[in-house]
Structures are given as structure tokens and as C-alpha cells.
Fold:
Amino acid sequence: MDNLLTLKDIVKYFPLRGNIFRHSGDTVRAVDGVSFSVRSGETFGLVGESGCGKSTLARLIARLIDPTSGHIIFDNRDITRLSAKALRPIRKDIQIVFQDPYASLNPRMKIGEIIGEALTIHNMVSGHERTKVIKDLIDKVGLGGDSYDRYPHEFSGGQRQRIGIARALALNPRLIIADEPLSALDVSIQAQIINLMADLQKEFSLTYLFISHDLGVVEYISDRVAVMYLGKIMEIASAEELYGKPVNPYTEALLSAIPVPDPKVRKKRIMIGGDIPSPQNPPSGCRFHTRCIYAQELCVKDEPELLPVEGHLSACHFPLVNPPSRRKSLQRRSEGIHEETQDIPDRR
Structure:
């Protein structure tokens, strides 16, 4: 399967203005060297805690903001530094569904105008044909025919998100970036939107980059999953492999937080200590070492590369591929308890 989208060492720094609390010239390292590929026709999930850089990465891919460095390759073409004019035809192929269904729709425009705006800008259809295309899209996302002449405030949150999906579909894109599309919706509505997106993917041969902090949703909808922490990719694997046997300590801790619906089942929770470091001054070495129960001296000094580990890609000096007894030894060492065991070999 060919790669539709490839990111190579994407970096985005936001400069900060100086004031009494910080010096001029400081930067926020929102995205700091991200690389991965999205295959044509798949759903690629991107998960991580709030503030890890997921939404910034979405806007970089859609070229709503410019990267500081790195390369964005879409359909075998480097679109990183293209001008607005050169990007115009490519924008039809990359659409985005935003997180907030209330703020992403213009309250002064009717639904037909919102969905059809892109058709007008790109001169795709006009007149009666334009109206027919818009009403067909409204029908495909499960809204009634009277929606065409109504305003956003007349719809619920789930219905507004359906309108956002219809707007993204209007130009018949190849890639849809879904940036936290379910976080503002009730659980029952979330299930409806997920099923709708799955049906539309089959019908229109879509590729999704699905961004969320809800691990359960990402597992259900994704073919492959990338885990992000403080501007870095920590692990990439198929959804089945990543959820079944994570090899990165951060992924392991995240997955342990997924609630089990059976109250009789007791699940061991791996608590992540401390606060997330500031992206303005991230830790040296491994970004996660300040909170990792397996951290060693090497983790503080050297930044791990994203390397193959048992079918995964993982950025960790000590991936979780050892027997449980060895992993317990690592944990005790990190807590300062002396263990008379042999030195831990470098498994890179």
C-alpha cells in the first residue's frame, strides 16, 4: 500500500514575547522532530495527553500554519514550502474536521452556504447542480432535507459535527484530518459519528488521520496508531499490536488508564508521577524520563531514536520486551532500591 502522506522531521516552534516572567526569544517547542507515514486508505490514529502537539501537527499537515523545519510530502509531492497559489489545488485533497462543532461553523451562514462555500471557491459546480451536490451530502451524513436552509444554532452538537463532516467531503478529498472530532459530544453521539465516518471511508475511499486523547475510540477506528508525548512520537504500531503488547513505557502507562467496563475485573493502574514538563523547556534526553518508572542514567543523557522493536517503532532505550522479573528490577532501580542483578544491556 502506497504512502499518501509522509512527515520527515517536522518541527514547529512558537516564539514568545518577552515580559517580566520570561526573556524575549524563548520558544515553545510544540512539535519537535516528528516523522511518520500514512498509507492510502487507512485510518491512522494519533493519541497523547493534552498539550502534546497533536492539534498543532494537524494544522501543519493541512498547511494552515507553516513548519519551522522538516518536510511534508503529500502524494509524492513536497508541499512544505509551496506558495498559497500552488497550494490551492492541493487543498481540495486535504480537508479537516475541527474539534469544536460550535465554533467551527459560521453562525451567520445557512447550512447550504457553509457546505457549498468550498465548491464556490474552487469553481467545481454551480447553479442547480451545486444545490443537488449539497443536498446529497446533507443526506449522506444523516441530516434531513430541510437542513439546507437552517442555521447552525438550530442543530445539536452531534448534528453540527455531521455538518462539519459534510463540508469536509464537499471537495471529494483524499485525506481527512479529524482533530478531536468527538471530544465535545456525548458518548452515545460519539458512537454514531464513528460509525458514520467508517461508512463514509468505504464509500469515498478516504484516508483518515484521526487525532484523539480517547484511547478506546482510537483503538476501535484505527488501523495503525502513533503515541505522542511533548512534541515527540514515542511509539507506532498496528492498533492490535500496540494495544495488545506496548513496548514503550509511556504507551504502557496510557493504556493502563483505560477503564474496564466489568466491575469484577481489577486492572493494575500504572501511575505516571509528576507534571508534564513545559514545552518551553523540555527535559534533556528522553522527554518522558522525568516521569518514567523505568528511567536510567542513559535516558537523561541521550535522546532515543524511533527504532524497530518487535514489529513496533519505539523511542526508548529500554523497551518493554524483557521478562516481567527484569522489568520489575528496572522499576526498583528507578525507585532507589538496590538490586543485586546483572547490568541492564543496551537493547538498541
